[in-house]
Structures are given as C-alpha cells and as structure tokens.
Design brief:
With 290 residues, this protein is mainly β. Among the domains are: 99 residues; 91 residues, no CATH class. Helix content is 9%, strand content 40%. The strands form two sheets. Strands 1, 2, 3, 4, 5, 6, 7, 8 and 9 form a nine-stranded mixed β-sheet that branches. Strands 10, 11, 12, 13, 14, 15, 16 and 17 form an eight-stranded parallel β-sheet that branches. The longest helix is centred in the N-terminal third of the chain and has 16 residues. It starts with a helix and ends in a 21-residue tail after the last strand.
Length: 290
C-alpha cells in the first residue's frame, strides 16, 4: 500500500512539472519555455511567446502573435488580418491564413529575424477521366477479335523466391572538404554568413543559419538545425541529424548539386533566401501530433 502511495505521489509531481500553456488575465495564450517543441491549438486567441530556441506549430487560427526570444522557429495558422510582432535575433516565423482574407501584418526587430508567408501547398494532380462507354462498333469489334492467350510461364508469375533481390544502392563516399572552410561548432546560434566560394561545416545543435553568396559545399551534422543556403552549381549539400533541415537555392547555371539527407534530416530547394517554402516531404501542420 505504501509503495502505491509513493508511486502515485511521484506521478502527481511529474504531471505538475510538465509545461502547459497558461492563460493571462486577458485570455492571451502564454508560452514560456527554453528549447521546447510542441504543437498547440491557438484558435481565435492572442499568443505571447517568451523563450529561446523553441519550435512551435500553432494551428486553428491565431489572432495575433507576440514573440520575445532568440532563435525560435514558429509555424502558425493565422486569422485573416492578424498581426505578428517579433523582437529577438534569429527568429523565423512562417504563417498561412486559416481562411481567405487580408494578409497578416508584421513588425520585426532583431538581427536575422524574418516573418514570411508560407506558400499554399501544390495542387493535387487532376483525376484521370473515366473510360468512355463502349460504342456498338467497338463492342462488335471486341466480339470478333480473337482472344489472346497469356504467354506461358511469364516471368511475373515466377515465385518470389526465384527472383534475385537487387543489392541496395550505396552512395559513393564523400571526399573531404577542400579550400576555405567555415567551421561552426557552437549550438543555439543564429547567424547570417557570407560563404562565397567557401565550404561550410556545421557540427552544432538547434542553430538558425542564413548562408549567402554561393557556398561550395554545406555539411550539417546536428539536431534541430535550420539552414537556408545559396549554393553553387555542382556543390554538395549533406544533412545528418534528427529535425535538421536545409533549404537551398542554386546560384547560377550548371549541373545539379549533390544533395544527401540521412538520420532524420531533410533538404529541399526553395526559390530564394527568405522566400521560404516548407519541405514538400514533411507532413502539413494539421497532420502533426500534439
């Protein structure tokens, strides 16, 4: 009995320590944390975010967002005509309208901070037209045409055990970086760098970076990093680590870059720095688990 009481008391203590959104006297949703990742319903409410390196998905239509922090990454559904107020360095807020209407207005104070509209998802492919009903002439032709017999022992009917599995395709090993290399090793930074003709190697976590001018290569190994980078043709982009993302822009014409993403990372192309498009392979905010 005593053991059960102790266990119950421990569960109550853990529940009390879990961060929960609070509400101010005026009904504002308060989010105060450090390095938190959550999906929260902000339906028709004002939101105030205080803290650093947080990653929030706000859905349901926020009325306004006031953010005071550093290196936060926010994706928000907004009510038409809403307002976003950011004060802090290295903050990225991408927003979309819950329903059609006037765009969101924004006030941004901070080095490297941006508030930008998130483009609508790509249109779904059109449904192929239904097969038209057979006409009388085509029906007659079908009756007179000789029936084709399937070929005996086609390869597709062979037992699966007889088929030889192809060996997995392995990418060739990467050569070491050459030329000038910018090394970034401090976690939690928000930086805007000129990488013209240089390679960038990031071995840090939860950073927010803008790389400009045309990098020769970008290699990121860490957790929770977000990078927007201008790269040269034939450059290589390597991302490794959970929730690490590289949105890249090719500068100039030439062969396609070598893009690799492993261990929970993702890398995709965007039109220009600041013209942020979400990873097309990632789930929509509504599909994210709370």
């Amino acid at each position: 009995m005593r053991r059960q009481i102790v266990l119950l008391a421990g569960l109550v203590l853990i529940a009390a320590l879990l961060p929960v959104p609070s509400r101010a006297d005026d009904g504002t949703l308060l989010l105060q944390a450090e390095g938190e990742q959550r999906t929260i319903d902000c339906a028709s409410r004002d939101v105030r975010i205080e803290g650093n390196r947080n990653r929030y998905i706000l859905r349901g239509g926020c009325r306004s967002i006031v953010l005071r922090g550093e290196a936060d990454d926010i994706q928000a559904q907004m009510i038409a005509g809403g307002h976003i107020d950011v004060e802090g360095n290295g903050v990225l807020v991408t927003w979309s309208l819950l329903h059609p209407g006037p765009d969101v207005s924004a006030t941004v104070n901070g080095q490297g901070s941006r508030v930008m509209a998130q483009n609508a998802p790509a249109a779904q492919p059109a449904t192929p037209p239904a097969t038209p009903p057979a006409t009388a002439s085509s029906t007659a032709a079908n009756k007179t045409a000789p029936e084709k017999k399937p070929a005996e022992n086609p390869a597709s009917e062979k037992p699966a055990a007889d088929a030889k599995a192809e060996p997995p395709h392995k990418l060739p090993p990467l050569p070491p970086l050459t030329g000038p290399v910018i090394d970034i090793t401090i976690s939690g930074e928000a930086r805007d760098l000129d990488c013209t003709g240089k390679s960038v190697r990031i071995t840090a976590d939860r950073g927010l970076y803008a790389l400009r001018g045309g990098c020769r290569a970008v290699e990121v190994q860490g957790t929770g990093d977000f990078v927007q980078a201008e790269i040269l043709p034939t450059a290589r982009v390597v991302a490794s680590g959970a929730d690490t993302r590289i949105a890249w822009v090719k500068i100039g014409t030439g062969a396609a870059p070598d893009i690799r993403a492993t261990d929970g990372a993702s890398a995709w192309q965007i039109p220009a720095l600041g013209d942020y498009h979400p990873d097309p392979a990632a789930p929509a905010p509504d599909a994210a688990k709370p």
